[in-house]
């Protein structure tokens, strides 16, 4: 290894760690369900009411989807797949249908942000020890190399980490936003 940095600084490493793992601290603190269900009637529901519920209600459940019944947290949490579908639809501009009044950029973002935080909380509620998994989104070798490249010190902090498993491909994607991505693809 060439010593690029003539004065490697331990401080750099200390400051670098939080930068390398910001997502981990995020991942440990998903929005509590209590907060999510409080946000729902004030931020999410009005958007659904003005753009979606006329086609997705109890009487007229287009695509077999009734969004009107989502009044309580229990209802909201009953079928996370519904929210994955809704997220998919609005991200891809498939809903509302082309002929209907479209979501403004702001409405789209508000709805999207709420769904993402809900799905994030849901996946944390269902996952065991997400911190470890999230932290390993870089393989051990990649992380060692990154630290060496940035600091010039061959510290190999991952000596302390468990060995990479064959499942790295998948765990790499298990960051909050990406869990959604992965599950969505699975659920078709
Ligand atoms: C003018 C009526 C209409 C409006 C408004 C509308 N939809 Fe739909 N939606 C449909 C129809 C019809 C289907 C079923 C056919 C299809 O998938 O294209 C559907 C299907 C869906 C599905 C897929 C359901 C499934 O299980 O496959 C989702 C999710 C969805 N809509 C979400 C929304 C959201 C979110 C909004 C508001 C932002 C919305 N829709 C607004 C008519 C509507």
How would you explain this protein's 3D organization?
- The relative contact order is 0.15.
- Mean pLDDT is 76; it is low at 130-136 and 167-188.
- The chain is built from ten helices and no strands.
- The chain is mainly α.
- The chain has a domain at 33-126.
- The longest helix has 22 residues, at 105-126.
- Helix content is 59%, strand content 0%.
- It binds heme C.
Low-confidence stretches: 130-136, 167-188
Please tell me how large the radius of gyration is.
21 Å
Largest sheet: none
Specify the structural class: mainly alpha
Strand content: under 5%
The shape, in one word, is elongated
The helix fraction, in percent, is: 55-70%
Helix count equals 10
The beta-strand count equals 0
Instruction: Return the string of H and E elements.
Output: HHHHHHHHHH
| Average residue pLDDT | 76
- Write out the distinct hetero groups bound to the structure: heme C
Distance between the termini: 46 Å
